[in-house]
Amino acid sequence: MRSSIFWLALPVGLISMAIASAQDKPATKKLYCWNENGQRVCSDALPAEAVTRAREEISAASGLRTAEVDRALTEEERAQAEAAKIQAQLDEAALETRRRTEQAMLLSYRSEEELRRVFNERIAIVDNNIRTARYNVVSLRDGLVSLLQTAGDRELAGQAVAAEATASIRSRHADLMRQRQLQASFERQRAELDVEIADILQRYRQMKGPAPSEGAPAPGTEPAATATPPGSA
């Protein structure tokens, strides 16, 4: 009610000027620029086919870029991005868990010798796996060579190789390939174990602090003063 009375009290000229000013004030406009078929296209309206494309938004008044919008991801890209995000979270959680576990493990051993005994047990297990795999590889290879030699002799003699012998050769060859893969895997584990042991021992020493050197005085003690022989001054 008061608003109506206010406008009625204003002169007609002032009301007309206010309306004209509101109508003449331009709305904030912007330009959209994007690439289409290798060419840069700019427009004050964004067509539907360009909504998912990467674009720049530019102020029509100042000519300055006000925003930059990346292109919309495809379904496959969104799935990959989500999977990468989840994997990064899992990796971070695994790293934090490993850090806490190793810290607790390092603090639970009173000396480096106790820690090395644990590592020696792991080393013994992996080394035993490597020795077993190497033995199996040699045994399978020798058996395969014997089967191939027998089959070759029969062919040279003009005799047919039995189907059972052919199947046995193929089976022995497949077993040999699998055993070689196991051997390579065990040897890779052994190399990774060496790196892991060196890393943990280094951090163990850092947490425990430097060991006192041999012959150094104990903390808080000073070497006794040596008497100066007469006449040496």
Summarize the structure.
This protein is of the alpha+beta class and 233 residues long.
SSE order and pairing:
Elements: H1 2-9, H2 12-24, E1 30-36, E2 39-43, E3 55-59, E4 65-69, H3 75-108, H4 112-156, H5 163-208
Antiparallel strand pairs: 1-2, 1-3, 3-4
Q: How many runs of DSSP E, i.e. beta strands? A: 4
The side-by-side strand order for the widest beta sheet comes to: 2-1-3-4
β content, as a range?
5-15%
- The H/E string reads HHEEEEHHH
The low-pLDDT segments are 1-10, 214-233
Counting copies of identical and different chains, the oligomeric state is single chain
Helix content bin: 55-70%
Mean pLDDT across all residues, rounded?
76
Structural class: alpha+beta
User: Largest sheet at a glance?
Assistant: 4 strands, antiparallel
Shape: flat
How would you characterize the overall build of this protein?
- This protein is an alpha+beta fold and 233 residues long.
- The chain is 63% helix and 9% strand.
- The chain is built from five helices and four strands, in the order ααββββααα.
- The chain has a four-stranded antiparallel β-sheet, with no helix packed on it.
- Helix 4 (112-156) runs antiparallel to helix 5.
- It is flat and about 90 Å long.
- The model is unreliable at 1-10 and 214-233 (pLDDT under 50).
